[in-house]
Design brief:
The protein is an alpha/beta fold. It is 46% helix and 16% strand. The strands form two sheets. A seven-stranded parallel sheet has the order 6-5-4-3-7-8-9, with helices on both faces. Strands 1-2 form a two-stranded antiparallel ribbon. Helix 4 links the parallel strand 4 and strand 5. Helix 3 packs parallel to helix 4 and helix 3 runs parallel beside helix 9.
Length: 257
């Protein structure tokens, strides 16, 4: 099968670091899937040690590439959002405002909200970072990313989102967005990371979740009132950026940053 516009054969494409695999060479499974697959116990002694070296190399690549970033904010949201959706418009405005405040913008590097945030940062003259992930449905890094890394392993990628961020801003999204949100809150709650803002943007979208946290988890004693204070909701881009700036100033004054 060929592409009617350029005559090139169509087919799947997978990026693994410096390697690009297309069509029949593209694997049907991902590195994460192979690592976590419990059905091939016979391979644990023969292959997992080598996987450990590959995992280490991903950490080295990420640390080396991102070590010179300016202060940065990780922005999360749906890859499925349309370019003209309210959350994409908000993400573009947010990316621009963060860039103007001196922050790099880190996203998952994909389409939708991520692309909008990267675009906003780039158009405002800021640094735009994309941390991609190998998925069965290949997305690839969007064109607005200045510095991009494609990871094989989710947990390595997640480390980079946290290590190099001064704050998390979470726009409407699905399972992946929720995963990043609750991991960030857990890390802050358990003091595994220095407390930094976790901001939900899109109050109408997130209000149901926040009400559930308050009326179910809090009322049942599963979390405390202080835990809810770890999350801030707003629809105002300027307010979100100011929260981050104020938190940075407070940490600097306390000597923790």
């Amino acid at each position: 099968m060929t592409n009617s516009t350029n005559g090139r054969p169509q087919g799947p494409e997978r990026h693994r670091g410096a390697v690009t695999l297309r069509r029949e060479s593209a694997p049907v499974s991902t590195a994460d899937e192979k690592l976590l697959d419990s059905h091939h116990r016979r391979e644990w002694k023969t292959k997992d040690a080598w996987r450990a070296l590959r995992i280490l190399s991903e950490f080295v690549e990420g640390f080396d590439t991102l070590a010179d970033l300016p202060p940065a904010v990780s922005v999360f949201g749906s890859a499925r959002s349309k370019p003209d959706s309210p959350e994409c418009e908000m993400a573009a405005d947010l990316g621009a405002a963060l860039a103007e405040a001196g922050y790099a913008v880190i996203t998952g590097g994909g389409p939708g909200v991520m692309e909008a945030a990267n675009r906003g940062a780039t158009e405002a003259g800021g640094m735009s970072v994309g941390l991609g992930i190998e998925l069965p449905f290949e997305q690839g890094l969007n064109d607005w990313v200045d510095i991009g890394i494609d990871f094989r392993y989710f947990f390595v990628r997640k480390t980079m989102f946290v290590k190099y961020a001064q704050a998390f801003v979470v726009l409407p999204g699905g399972f992946g967005t929720l995963d990043e949100l609750f991991e960030a809150i857990t890390l802050v709650q358990t003091k595994k990371v220095t407390r930094f803002p976790v901001i939900l943007m899109g109050t109408e979208y997130w209000s149901g979740l926040f009400d559930w946290l308050r009326k179910t988890l809090l009322d049942d004693g599963k979390i405390s009132e202080a835990d809810l204070d770890l999350i801030q909701l707003t629809d105002d881009v300027d307010e979100a950026v100011q929260i981050i700036v104020d938190a940075d100033a407070a940490l600097a004054e306390s000597g923790k940053r």
